[in-house]
Amino acid sequence: MQARSALFDVYGDHLRSRGSEAPVAAVVRLLDPVGIAAPAVRTAISRMVTQGWLEPVQLAGGRGYRTTDRANRRLDETGDRVYQRHRPAWDGTWHLAFIEPPADRSARTRLRADLTFVGYAELTDNVWVSPFPRAELGSMLERAGATARTARADRFDPEPIGAWDLDQLRTSYEAWLGEADGLVGRHLGAHDDGDEAAFAARFHLVHEWRKFLFADPGLPDPLLPRDWPGHEAADLFADRARALKPGTDRFVARCLAD
């Protein structure tokens, strides 16, 4: 697990509802049970400040960092997808983005990763498709130095679901169903403190589940097979995350209070 990714998980899943800020010492304590060492935490924080995700703030517990408005938008959208808080109704049309990519190769790579993360797939060269418009598109293009035209397509024949590898996604969801409880059990058994164990187990559960956001665009039910395993996998995730939340919340409160 990379420290930067772990920091996004901490701020999104634990600190967003607690003012989106914390002293550095508290963040270090929170990430210790999941194996992220203090030097790696501090290095990742510094990089995230440079990238515009965090900003320094002076707190009662010492120097700390708060998520920026840009980070909050990303964390909120990610949280909605992780916990399926708002499943929009599909109107049967598709959102298309005709991208004029940036000249810089690294910027192009970042833009592709961002587009994939928020639910787009490349239909053909520089033409990206999504079942829903994505609120972050404009800010992602601006950061990358790219431009785009957008359009709505009333119909495709056939529907462009082939832009995503649904066979591989099905395999991944089926594997998740067989492995999630083992993942939770391993981390529950690795810590003597019950609340710390709950935190570590939930942290790894959410971290692994969040990876599906890079592969699953959240296609509307009418486009998915009736036996789509993603629904059962989402129910399992929500049930296990809910069960671990009380102990997790107690551990987070301790780390922030120390």
From TrEMBL:
It comes from the Bacteria. Pfam families: PaaX, PaaX_C, PaaX_M. Residues 3-70 form the Transcriptional repressor PaaX-like N-terminal domain. Residues 164-253 form the Transcriptional repressor PaaX-like C-terminal domain. InterPro entries: PaaX-like_central, PaaX-like_N, PaaX_C, PaaX_trns_reg, WH-like_DNA-bd_sf. Residues 88-147 form the Transcriptional repressor PaaX-like central Cas2-like domain. This is PaaX family transcriptional regulator. It comes from Nocardioides mangrovi.
